[in-house]
Amino acid sequence: MFTLYDKNAAMWQIVLASGIMGIGNGLFQSPSNNAIMTCVDHDHLGLASGILALSRNMGNILGVAVTITLFETFRNIFLESGKVYDIAFLTAYRTTMCFGIFFGLCCLTFAFIAYKKDNLKSCK
Questions:
Q1: For residue range 2-48, what is the model confidence (pLDDT) as tens digits?
Q2: What is the mean pLDDT of residues 85-109?
Q3: Cα–Cα nearest to 63, from 6, 25, 115
Q4: Percent of the chain scored above 70 by pLDDT?
Q5: Which long-range contacts (CB under 8 A, 24 or more apart) does 25-30 make?
Q6: Residues 56, 23: Cα–Cα separation, whole Å
């Protein structure tokens, strides 16, 4: 949805897209954490929880850094090609969101492979 917006996007559209993204994150994160934590011995739950939190936070930090880097790079490329600032900004934004879709699909593929029932049976 974010790739379709222009500079006249209404606030409700942005809130709707953010809400859908948040619901998707919640629907993925809880089962993922459960699958990880059930594969850990009871004696190591604290360590596993800490590593899980570290991984989640590092993913958030790296995600923001990569997103900002991609956006700034694309914006500068579009500005240097002679586009007006508004057009360069929106094009860079949409392109960056498309990269986010690509990264999300890659993560979905990896999660699908990692959380197959055959792989999870070896945890127990």
A1: 888 888 889 999 999 999 989 988 888 888 888 888 888 889 989 99
A2: 91
A3: 25
A4: 94
A5: 28/111, 29/56
A6: 17
Mean pLDDT throughout 62-82? Answer: 94
For residue 121, pLDDT over 90 is answered with no
Domain of 8, in residue numbers: 2-121
- Please state, in angstroms and rounded to a whole number, the distance separating the CA atoms of residues 44 and 38: 11
Q: Which two tokens stand for residue 78?
A: 């579009």
pTM of the model: 0.73
CA atoms within 13 A on the CB side of 39: 17
Question: Which string of DSSP letters, residue by residue, matches the chain?
Answer: -GGG--TT--HHHHHHHHHHHHHHHHHHHHHHHHHHHHTS-GGGHHHHHHHHHHHHHHHHHHHHHHHHHHHHHHHHHHHHTT--HHHHHHHHHHHHHHHHHHHHHHHHHHHHHHT-HHHHHTT-
Select from 72, 91, 94 the least CA-distant residue to 17: 94
Domain count, the chain: 1
CA distance 53 to 10: 35
